[in-house]
Amino acid sequence: MPKKRSGGGLTGTQQAAKFLGVSVLAGAVLAGIALPAFGALGLAAKGTVEGFDEIPANLKTPPLSQRTTILDSKGGRIATVYSRDRTVVPLKDISPYMQKAIVAIEDSRFYEHGAVDLKGVLRALNRNAQSGGVAQGASTLTQQYVKNVFVEEAGDDPEKVAAATQQTLGRKIQELKYAIQVEEELGKKKILENYLNITFFGQQAYGIEAAAQRYFSKPAKDLKVEEAAMLAGIVQSPSRYDPVNDEEEATKRRNTVLQRMADVRDISQAEADRAKATPIKLNVSRPKNGCITAVSGAGFFCDYVRSVFLNDPVFGKDREERAKVWNQGGLTIRTTLDPQAQNSAQESVKDHVFQSDAVATALTIVEPGTGKILAMGQSRPYGFGKNETQINLSVDQKMGGGAGYQPGSTFKPIVAAAALERGVPATQTFPSPYEMTYPTPVQTCNGPWTDEDVPVENENESEVGPYSMKEATAKSVNTYYVQLISQIGVCPVTELAAKMGVKRADGKKIQQVPSITLGTQEVSPLTMASAYATFASRGTYCTPIAIESIQGPNKKPMPVPKSKCERAMSETTADTINTLLKGVVEDGTGQQAGLGSRPSAGKTGTTDFRYAAWFVGYTPNMSGAVWVGDPRHSRKMVDITIGGEYHDKVFGGEVPGPIWKDAMTGALDGREAPGFNEISIPDAPKAPEEDPNKPGNDAGQENGGQNNGGQDGRPGDNQGTGTGGPGGSFPPGVLTGGQNGGGNGNGGQDGGGNGSEGQDGGGNFP
Length: 766
Known about the structure:
Number of helices: 21
Low-confidence stretches: 1-26, 28-55, 133-137, 688-766
Mean pLDDT: 82
Radius of gyration: 37 Å
Helix content: 25-40%
Distance between the termini: 92 Å
Strand content: 5-15%
Strand order of the largest sheet: 2-1-3-13-14
């Protein structure tokens, strides 16, 4: 293996080899230029092209990758993303000093020669012969531009980059042929403009505009002579002449450029000397690439925009094609994000749930009637550090989120809406005991569900019916909603949920089981906010959208996904749900989320074992969903401190409710406060107060309830053992009484007992 001399130079063998290589290349260049039809040029060695004439005549120049700017709905910058930080500018927006500096140091005869500088080749041969090595190259600015095009086309593929930069005779001749074409088609000014926009200046800056901003925080048109000379000097070796890491070496190189500018009379010697005496004064702007730099905690929304681009066919036929467009960049994307709503959402999240807490929170706000996503807040910031994450807790797994979270009782209004759509009145009443088992069988889209002895109970033992839909919704009575879905079946519920955009966050199908009435299927906050927006818009569901418009690199508009709005339920049904949920925030479980004089509606939700708590609410002009919990589903929210406040148990109205209230208060500040179209829903009739120990009274206090039989049934047989519930007069067909009496308390115009099933009892519930 050849060894270097003690002084670090090349051995005689290496010098001779490099000299021979340059000589052969020069000869091939001259032959190829003078005799383009020379055939194979005698280039049979490995790595050469077959022949000069066989090289394609047209250089395909890919669009230059540039930075993409993501804006909010008001035009404010959210973030800048790019695969290569570049902003293409015309020559008129590049300092004349910069134009002269790059020509002086890279190709001083640029305006005098053609695609190949024959004098330069001969001069290089002479210099190299004298030095015994390769002291000077002979590539023109045009040839360098062609080489950069090959590198740009290679993208981030290391193998393609290596092929684009390999120092073979074939590659050089290929560059020469394309250089001839470029000279003929573009002309000197355009070549210079293209070169300054494509070349790499170090520090992740591609093109002169990005370089001027990176090193001096100013546009390229404002570069001074000493600044331009420094940047021009970097091009030869961006790492060696990096002024950030080696100011001394960068200064030497800059002064070389300044002297060269004086030698070719672009500036006077006096100007050059003054510039040389000026210390390098950097004003570095650090690279600000990616969603991690987003303002107002909008990093997750920024990443969601990227996911939309990569997944929506409007941007390309497949993901590879869409990724290519995204990586080329140069886009200006105006999004739906409302800066006022985003700021309010993020501030509320930070105030109520700390980044270091054992649990996290996510909040999403959408606009009813348009589907526009107005805000996405999250307590754990976008990043890679401790208590940071890149998982967007607000969205589905496919769009950068997790597997979702059980929505708990926030799903109940969907069940109520499905029942109303099936003709069930809002005055529907059920016995609703504190605990019971699921009725069976229950119809689903796939046939009857027949599991037996599946228990369900209410949150508090005091929650004992009978309840009407209005009171059961306000108090979030589980046993009421189990009976409601059992009456109408599961299929109408899942069908309506699909119309409202409700789907599992993990992409799986919603299960056909009655327990969905209690919110057992994992969903995302964006899904729930969009679903409740259906109620706010009086029954019309709009698919969520994040992008309003996109301007391409050519400043022309690009197509963007549009929200699809379709009627999911009647206006009457939506108005009824709005009335029911307005009661939740006025005197139900969501009172801590109320917005005072501004009309609002919503629903709380808490899952089994308190792994998650929710509040989903809305006004006619905004709908928001708040989730609080452990993304890993391992930390129960009992005996826990959240946001500096201790909770023995976490409820949906207690933690998520105030987060929603504060976020919506700020988001809606200064905006109109329209009301809902409310429906009059009569209260359920009250049972008269009588002596509970009076035999045979309407309260059905007797064990088994002698008068607790079905409306058309025989008296009970006194075999029941439970204690009767409150009596009441119910509409015919509302309660499912036992044909043979029995002490189940589910039938009886004068009954309503809640005892255990009698020996001959026909009651359905315990």
